[in-house]
Amino acid sequence: MKNESDIICALCNRNTPKKYAEKHHVVPKCKGGKDFEMVCAPCGDQVHLLFTNKELRDQFNTIEKLKANERVQKWIKFIQKRNDFHVCMKEKKRG
């Protein structure tokens, strides 16, 4: 049940308490981005583990492009089965 202070994660579509939500700049701020989507913290962290800021700017600069990526699809399938927002993620090599 969605609380008025919750958001829906733009990436995994989970109902997310605001305290576990963050702005995901579709083009990283350090690369000139201003537009953002609200995502849950685990999704935001995972995106930055999978891709460099340059890759995010050049190849994955929309939520739709992120969702089309096979590694992101695997992540979404995993995270949608989780009810908690404290997900431990291993450091992964980008690329």
What would you say about this model in short?
The chain is of the alpha+beta class and 95 residues long.
Strand order in the largest sheet:
1-2
Structure class: alpha+beta
Shape: globular
Provide a count of the helices.
4
Largest sheet: 2 strands, antiparallel
Number of discrete domains: 1
Distance between the termini: 37 Å
Low-confidence stretches: 90-95
Approximately what portion of the residues adopt beta-strand conformation? 15-25%
Number of strands: 4
> Portion of residues in helices?
25-40%
Which series of helices and strands comes N to C? EEEEHHHH
Secondary-structure map with pairings?
Layout: E1 6-8, E2 15-17, E3 21-25, E4 36-40, H1 41-50, H2 53-58, H3 63-68, H4 70-79
Antiparallel strand pairs: 1-2, 3-4
Explain what this protein looks like in three dimensions:
34% of the residues lie in helices and 17% in strands. A hairpin with a 6-residue loop joins strand 1 (6-8) and strand 2. It has one domain. The protein has helices spanning 41-50, 53-58, 63-68, 70-79, and strands at residues 6-8, 15-17, 21-25, 36-40. The strands form two sheets. The protein has a two-stranded antiparallel sheet. Strands 3-4 form a two-stranded antiparallel sheet. The protein has four helices and four strands.
What would the keywords be for this entry?
alpha+beta; two-stranded antiparallel sheet; disordered C terminus; 95 residues
